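Tutorial handout. Part one gives the primary structure; part two gives the three-dimensional structure as tokens.
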Amino acid sequence: MAKDPDLNAAYGLDGTDSVKQLYANWAETYDAAFAKTQGYDLHRQVAAHFAAAGGQGPVLDVGAGTGLVGEALAALGISDVDGTDLSPEMLGVARAKGCYGLCFTADITQPLDVPDDTYGGIISAGTFTLGHLGPEPLAELIRITRPGGLFAITVNAAHWQAAGFGPAFEALGDLIEDLKKADVAIYTSGADHDHADDRGFVVTFRVT
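Part two.
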């Protein structure tokens, strides 16, 4: 099996400073050296679920990175998409693709400088995962989403129980409805590396 030190490093991150450093170094090669060669497919999976559930703009792509989700949404005819990420270097790559209206750097573990009820949808791939985010930002993301707005986010399967996503969704109570959790492969069937068999969940729900 081929080694993937960048992904292993990403799963072992601890704190915002380490996240910023890793992705600053990875931004220019992320699409070619990781997403394409490793068979990463989670961005297309979450975009497809968002579209199938009737998702539409304005959408915020959380942890937009280099814009893979934005490209996948555009391919499905979904426009009016903004992107946010902790890494300005990753967002620089995303911005150059032209699939986002606004790109802004933000730490979503902190209050966002975004008004209530701004977005009709929230989408995210590969951000609620090992070494990255637990469920804590969900309430703040719900705040900036309109009633009836659709969430479609991925959660790494190994991270789901360890980070307490189940109880966290239960604690959101009447703020959300129509919660669904679909088990998906993170990588395409031809992938051949240490994480090729990893699984994730695409979690969809609507804001009440």
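Part three, for discussion. The chain has one domain: 5-207. The chain has a mean pLDDT of 87.
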